Amino acid sequence: MKTLPNADVVIVGGGWTGLLMAKELGSRTSASVVVLERGGPRKTTDYFNTMDELENYVHLRMIQDFSSETVTLRHNDRQKALPLRQAGTFLPGAGTGGAGEHWGAVCDRMSPDSFELFSKTVEKYGSKKLPEDHAVQDWGVTYDEIEPFYARVEKLIGACGKAGNINGKKIDGGNVFEGWRSSEYPLPPTKIPYFSALFDDAAKKLGYHPYPSPAATLSAPYVNPDGVARPGCTYCGFCERYGCMIGAKAQPTNTLMPVIAKHKNVSVRNGAWVRRVVFDKTGGNAKSRGVTYVESGQEFFQPADLVVLASWTLNNTRLLLLSGVGEPYNPSTGTGTVGRNLTHQVSFSPVLAFFEKPLNKFMGSGAAGVLIGDFSGHVLDHTQLPFIRGGTLQAPSHGYGPLGTFGAVPKSVETKWGSAWKKAAIYYYDRAGRFSFQGEHLAYRGNFMDLDPTYTDRNGDPLLRMTLDWRENERRMADFAIAKSIEIVRAMGVTDFTPSRGLGSYDARVYQSSHLQGGTIMGKSPETSVVNPYLQHWQLSNLFILGGSTFPQSSSARPTLAMLALTCRAADALVDRYLKAPGPLAGS
Amino acid sequence: MSEVKGEIVDESFMISAPLSASREGEKPDFAVLGDHSTKQMPRRQFLVISAAVVAGVLLSGLDGSAKSVSPEDRLIHIPLHFFDAAEAAIVMAAASRIFPADESGPGAKEAGLVVYIDRHLAGPYGSDGHRYTQPPFEEGVLELGYQGKATPAEIYREGLKGLAGFHKLPPAEQDKALTQIESSLFFSLLRQHTIDGMFCDPVHGGNVDMLGWQLLGFPGARMSNYDDVDKHFGEAFRPAAVSLGGHPRENEE
Q: What's the burial of A79, exposed, middle or buried (CB within 10 Å: 0-12/13-18/19+)?
C-alpha cells in the first residue's frame, strides 16, 4: 500500500454533498482538500450528444455499474437476502456529480414538523398513533434553524417556483401548506405543460391548492451568488436519467465544479474507490486518520486531518460497517446505531389515465409539473384515518420518450402483442398520463442495514444487506392516495383509467425513486444516532458524514435540497468553529 | 418486387450463407457459425434482405396511412454480430408478429428490428456486462428480480432452439407458437427488445428512417420545445423528427 502526502481534508464521494463541501472549504479556507470519486470525470459538454433514450433510460449509462457492486435485499430477517442483480428500484449515480447529474431536479422543502417528527406526532395525537414497531426520531435540528440554509442553497442552484408562505404570510398560487420562507424563490416557476395544466384545473375545481413544482431546471438564464451562469431550460424532455446538455438543470458539474476549478487547494481524484476509513481507537481521544482506496488495482492510503464521508447514501453506511467505526445496529436488542432507520419513500403512480386528446408529452423537464400538498402529513387530520402522515400528489410533465412509456393501454385491450395491441398502443401512446405520489416512509425497528454474509463486491468486500419492507401504515397511505387520485382524474373528465394495485411487498424490480435515507442518522444522542446535528461523528470528532444517510426517516419532499442545506450548515460549523478549535461541536 | 403493402410475404428476405461459403458456392455451415461459446471470431454471417423491405419503403403518414416511396428491388447484405442467419430469420419473423406491418403502419421488419437486437446481444448487454453475476444463484421472492444465471444472449439462444422453422410457418401458425411461449423469459425479452428497437434512435440499428417515431409523432432528439411546451393544448403537435445521427458530433475525439 502506498502512503500519500497528508491532506487537511479528504472527502469521499464527488456528488452533490461532497462537492458542495469541497467548494465551501476550497473558497473559504486555505485547507488542502482531496475529493476521492470512484467514477470517471464528467462535464457539461459530455452531454451534448446524449439525447438517447436507449442509452440513458434503458441502458442506464449514468448509473452505477451493478456488476461491480450492488446491495442484497430481504423483506425480513427470516428471508435469505439476495443481490439486486440489476438496477431497478433506485438509481445510484456514477462519476463526478454522482446522482446529482441524472436527478429530476424537483427541489421542494420538507415541512417544518418533519424535523421533529416524533415530538410533533406525539404532541398532536399522543404516543399510541405511531405504529408499535416504529423507530421515528427527531433530527436534532428544527426547521427554523435550517431555513436560512434552505434559502442559501435555493440561490446556489437557482430554484424556480412560487412561494406560498413568506414569513408566515400565505400566498395563493404557491404551496400554502409549506413552512415559512425568508424570501421568494430566486426565479419564477417553469412553464406548465398540458397534462399538468389539466391537473391544475381539476384540483382547483375540487378545492385543493395546486402549485407549480419547485424546480432546479432554470425557467430563465441565471447567475448564482458564486458568479456561475446557466441558461434557461428548453424543455427537451431528456432530463431525468440524463445529464443536461446545456447545463440548465443544476448539477454538481455545472454548478459547483466551475467554482472548485478556480481553487488550487482542491483536487478531485477520479477512479479512486474508497474501501476503509482508518482510525485510532485510543479511548476518549478516538480520531480518524484517513482513508484507504484502490485505483487501477493499486492500494493507497490517503492520510488526512479531517475525513468527510459523502458517498451515496447507502455507501456511507457500508463504509462505516466495513471499517468497524461505531457499533452495528442490532434490531433484536435495539442497541448499536450504524445501519438503523433505513427508509425509502412511498413513491409510486396511483393512477394511469387515458385522455381523449393527445398530451404532447415529449415536451417537459424532470421538474416540470403541478403538485398538491393537501394530503401532506402535516395537513391531513389523521384522527379518523387508518394511517399517519402523508405525501404530495403530482401530475408531472417530465418529458417522455417512447421506450419508457410505449405500451400503456386500457384494460380493455387484452393482448400484449400483435395487431390489435399495436394499434391500441399507438393510439394511446400520447394519450396516457400518470400521476405520481410521494409519501413519507416511517422508520421501523425491523428496517435496517448490515453486511451481507455471502455476497461481495469486485474488491471482495461484503455487500450491504438491506432488510426492508412496507408496513400497514404505508399500504394504507398508498390506498388513500389511489382513492384521491381517482377523484381527481374524474374531475379531469377522464372516464378510462387504471388505478394502481397498491403497495404489497417492497418491489425491487420497479423504479420508485432514488430517495433512500438512514443508516448513519443524525440526532440528539449518541445512543440513538451516529452523527450530531452538525453531521459530526459522535465518537470520531474529525469524521463528518453528509447526505441522505443522516436522515432519521424520509419526508414526502425530495431529499436533495435538505441534503444541500444540512451540508451548508455543517460547512459553516467547520469553517467558523471546528477548524479554529478542532473538537466536538455538540454535546449529547 | 415492386411494392410492399400490408402483410409482408416471407419471400421478402432470404437466409444467406456466410460470406466465404456463399462466395464459394457452398451450403451454409450453421454448425460452425452457431458456436459462439469460443472466443474465436466466427466467420461473419449476413442477413440478406430486399432493400424494398427495410429502409424507408413504407413511410407512415401522420394519419396512419402507409405509402410506398421507393420501390427499389435490390438485395442488401447486413452483417450479423450475434445471430446466425437462421436465428436472424426467426427473430425477424417473430418480432414481426409482435409488432406487425398492418393497416396501422409498418412493423418490426420494416424498422430493421433484427439489426438492432443482433447488435444489442453482441454488446455488453448480451453477455451481462453490467449485471451482478456473482454466485450463488438462488431463487427468491419475485420482488427481488431476475436471479438466474443465464445471460440475455443465452436466453435467446435457448429460446430460438424452440422456434426452429418458425419463419417458414404461415402467420396464424406463428401466432400460435408465440402464444405457447408467451409467459417465458425469452418472449418477454423479445417483446421488450422489439419495442426498444422500434423506437430507439436509429443510430442503434433499429427504427430505420425513424419509421417507429413517425408512427407515434415522436420528434426524437429535438433540442428545444421552449416556444411550444405550454401551447398546442388539446391538439397534436408533431414537429419533424431528428436523429442523433443528424447532429454534428463536435466532441468526438
A: middle
* Residue written as grid cell 442495514: A449
Residue A280 in domain: yes
Please answer yes or no on whether B128 and A67 come within 8 Å at the CB atom: yes
Roughly what angle, to the nearest 10 degrees, separates helices B113-122 and B185-199? 110
Query: Which residues in B lie closer than 8 A to residue A232 (C-beta atoms)?
Result: 226
Host domain of residue A171:
2-578
Compute the distance between CA of residue B151 and CA of residue A27 in angstroms, rounded to an integer: 49
Q: How far apart are the CA of B179 and the nearest CA of chain A, in angstroms?
A: 10
Q: Are A40 and A96 in contact (CB under 8 A)?
A: yes
For residue A583, is it within any domain? Answer: no
- What is the C-alpha separation between B109 and B233, in angstroms, rounded? 35
A50, part of any domain: yes
On whether the CB atoms of residues B10 and B167 are closer than 8 A, the answer is: yes
Among partner residues B218, B224, B247, which is closest to A402 by beta-carbon distance?
A: B218
Question: In chain A, what residues touch B204 (CB-CB under 8 Å)?
Answer: 54
SS3 content of chain B, % helix, strand, coil (to 5): 35, 10, 55
User: In chain A, which residues have their Cβ closer than 8 Å to the Cβ of B107?
Assistant: 422
Q: How many domains does chain A have?
A: 1
Domain ranges of chain B: 10-131+146-219+229-240
Q: Is A393 helix (H, G, I), strand (E, B) or coil?
A: strand
- ipTM for the predicted complex: 0.95
- Euclidean distance between the first and final Cα of chain B, in Å? 43
Q: Measured between CB atoms, does B8 come within 8 Å of chain A?
A: no
Q: Which CA distances in Å does A24 have to A99, A151, A259, A377, B112? A: 20, 16, 9, 34, 52
CB pairs under 8 A between A and B: 182
Check CB contact under 8 Å for A85 and B235. Answer: no
B99 touches chain A (CB under 8 A): yes
CA distance A457 to A461: 5
Q: Which of A238, A406, A418 sits opposite B195 (nearest CB)?
A: A406
Q: CATH code at A519?
A: 3.50.50.60
Task: List per-residue pLDDT tens for chain B, 253 residues long.
Answer: 333 332 222 222 333 222 222 223 333 322 223 333 334 445 678 777 766 565 443 333 333 344 444 545 567 778 899 999 999 999 999 999 999 999 999 999 999 999 999 999 999 999 999 999 999 999 999 999 999 999 999 999 999 999 999 999 999 999 999 999 999 999 999 999 999 999 999 999 999 999 999 999 999 999 999 999 999 999 999 999 999 987 433 333 3
Q: List chain B residues with CB under 8 Å of A402.
A: 195, 198-199, 212-213, 216, 218
Single out the residue of A73, A215, A207 nearest to residue A154, CA to CA. Answer: A215
pTM: 0.92
